[in-house]
Write a structure and sequence with these properties.
- It comes from Budvicia aquatica.
- The protein is built from seven helices and five strands, in the order βββαααβαβααα.
- By secondary structure, the chain is an alpha/beta fold.
- The chain has one domain: 2-Layer Sandwich (Nucleotidyltransferase, domain 5), CATH 3.30.420.
- Strand 2 and strand 3 form a beta hairpin.
- The longest helix has 22 residues.
């Protein structure tokens, strides 16, 4: 059986709120999980004027900043798709990795499909929270990043900057995956 090589890409976003298509994705950061120095960061122009104050407060972004500094969504997603393609070995599959991946992936998927017609990641994402739960047998409550940090002691930390968070997530993924391999029973 010929299995494709997988390239794990850590992706983090900051948004103007939680509803895909109503709230805007304002920033997107990404890096290769095993080569985090290979990175991508962009700000996007808002797709609406709808925002949740708490979401903007978390990221420190404003719709006005994003409008002034951001790329049109079509251009932004085209650049991200090109970055993904340029950083994949031949015949490799990109794997979207995120901390609470369903949230981030849903926005990225929507933007790729709406503005480019296809999502290079396909229809699935690898969630670090679920990976940690499976690797450690912990409760769902203990998959918060603060709980994961206490067990794995990463050198980086999340700060709601999309690129910094993508690199932090990449480190968490590597630490969890190493732990899982270490604790895997002999077969």
């Amino acid at each position: 059986m010929n299995q494709k090589q997988e390239t794990f890409i850590s992706v983090d976003i900051e948004t103007a709120g939680p509803i895909v298509s109503e709230h805007s994705m304002l920033t997107l950061g990404a890096c290769l999980v095993y080569q985090p120095e290979i990175e991508f960061l962009m700000t996007l122009k808002p797709i609406s004027d709808q925002a949740v104050d708490a979401a903007l407060k978390i990221s420190g972004l404003t719709l006005q900043q994003a409008q002034a500094d951001g790329l049109a969504p079509e251009e932004a997603m085209a650049q991200f798709a090109t970055w993904i393609a340029n950083n994949l070995p031949e015949n490799a599959t990109p794997v979207f990795v995120g901390l609470n991946a369903p949230f981030d992936w849903s926005f990225v998927n929507y933007y790729f499909l709406k503005y480019l017609g296809e999502n290079p990641f396909g229809f699935a994402a690898l969630d670090i929270k679920a990976l940690f739960m499976g690797a450690t047998g912990c409760s769902w409550h203990d998959t918060r990043s603060s709980s994961i940090d206490k067990q794995l002691h990463p050198t980086l930390e999340g700060n709601h900057d999309a690129l910094c968070d993508a690199k932090y997530q990449a480190e968490l993924f590597r630490l969890i995956y190493q732990q899982e391999l270490y604790h895997r029973p002999e077969r």
